[in-house]
Each structure stands twice: as C-alpha cells, then as structure tokens.
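Archive maintenance. Older records in this collection stored only the sequence; we are now back-filling the structure field for every entry so that each record is complete. The fields below show one back-filled record exactly as it appears after the update. Entries are processed alphabetically, and MarR family transcriptional regulator is next in the queue.

ARCHIVE ENTRY
Title: MarR family transcriptional regulator
Organism field: Nocardia callitridis
Length field: 202
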Amino acid sequence: MLDPYALTVHTLTLRQLGSAAQLAEINANQVADTETALAKAVADGNVIAARGNFMITPAGRGFLDTVYPSAFAAVRSDAAVDAAMDSFETGVNKQILALTTDWQTVEVNGERVSNDHGDAEYDAAIIDKLGRVLDKTQRVLRPLVEVDALVGRFLDRIAAALTRVEGGEIDYVSGVRVDSVHTVWFQLHEHLLRLTGRERPE
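Back-filled structure field:
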C-alpha cells in the first residue's frame, strides 16, 4: 500500500484541486500529516500550491507511475479483485452512470431535457434505485474493501451522501460543489483504476 507521502500525491489524482483538509477527508490521513506531505511534495516538484489549494504536476504523475506497481502488486495479482472489478465495470458502474443521466434529465416528447425536479415521484424512484445499486456495490466490491481500506471509506462517503439526499438535500445526488454521490463515485472509480492498473473504459 501507499505510504502517507505517496497517498497524499495519489489523492490529488482523485480530486484535481484541493486543500489539505479536503485531501485528508478523502484519504483519512490527519490534516497535519497531509500538510507535511504536501510541503515535501511541493519541494520535490510533484505538487504545486495555489492559494491554499494544491494540484499534482506531471512529475508527480510520473512519481506515482513508479510507485503503483510495487505498492499494489498483491492487489493486482488477486483473482478475486479482478473478478470484482469485472462485475463493477459491467454492472454497477454502468447503472450509476445511467441513473445520474436519468436524474439530470427527463424524456419529453421523445427528447431529453433538463430535469427541473418538479416531479417528486420521478425523483423518488431514482433515489430508491440509487440505494439499491449502492447496496449491490457494497457486495460487489467486498474483495477490494478487504485489501484496501480506502475503498471502504469511499463507500461510506457515498452512503453518507445518499443519506443527505434522502433527507431532502437533492444536490447530493450529482452536485459538483459538494461531495455528492456522483462526485465521490468518480473518485472511487479513479482510485479503483489506479489500484488495479486498469484503464478507464471508453
């Protein structure tokens, strides 16, 4: 697995721009440890700082490319993980993407238009489906949760976002300014790809 320094740099591939606190929320490091790692990463040229936020550099991506193969060797050779990823990509990931589209748009006279969320029953049906897909995702990704705690953290964050949706905060379905189901799902997927060495499907 990744040491705190590499994990901090890695987290910037999941969230393209973020503060130390935001990165720590993703990777479960202490904020102070994240700040220390970021300071070193900036000095090393792997990260750049901009007004309290940080971004990975091409050198940082190159650094991770040298770290991943050894750090994740055991995961990448695990047959159960490989099978779980196949199920994830062909099943729940496609379902989440389709539900996000259904949430953001509705069909009117054969055309897709923006969903104004005026139909409570339509929205409630999608939220219910999201809950069922996320329950299935917990089962599908169990082999990965067993070998990488960060996967379980992502699933907990997605569940927390869904709880807020169910409480009426509908921006937590796909809003880009909050840790919505869709936002955290994207981070989870990117982490899974880097963990397993796979390419993002077209």
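Update note: The chain is about 70% helix and 10% strand. The domain at 4-71 is CATH 1.10.10.10 (Arc Repressor Mutant, subunit A).
Entry marked complete.
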